[in-house]
Amino acid sequence: MADEKDNVSADDQALADEWAAALNEAGEGGQSDIDALLAADEPKGTRLPMEEFGTPAKPMDIAGLEGPNLDVILDIPVMISMEVGSTEINIRNLLQLNQGSVIELDRLAGEPLDVLVNGTLVAHGEVVVVNEKFGIRLTDVISPTERIKKLR
Hints:
It is built from 4 helices and 4 strands, in the order ααβαβββα. By secondary structure, it is of the alpha+beta class. A 4-stranded antiparallel β-sheet has the order 1-2-3-4, with no helix packed on it. A hairpin with a 2-residue loop joins strand 2 and strand 3 (120-130). The longest helix has 25 residues, at 2-26.
């Protein structure tokens, strides 16, 4: 064990000596020495010209001459949902709900439902029954400009 401690301290001493030699070679120069070396390499008053930037390279164009290529996005799945209405209740009342409880919504009976795609309102519609399943008939589709206005 004593030999191992002597070896470690000898290794540490050798490392310290190497650092000391490297620092002595570097000298006591500071930022002024670095600036002087840089100035000696480049004649005074000479500056490199700024690069001229042309028009930026166009990324791969997914829009053809006829218009946008929708084939790129047609197979992306989206979540579509219909909102009958909404309301706010506190947790105490939520925990008291049981079978047969009625929750009053913020919509009137017969008022159109909201059709949401990924949480964004895109249309209004009314409930219909098709082959004993519920469906929705769109009565009003929100224009893209109106959707953008709602995002702001």
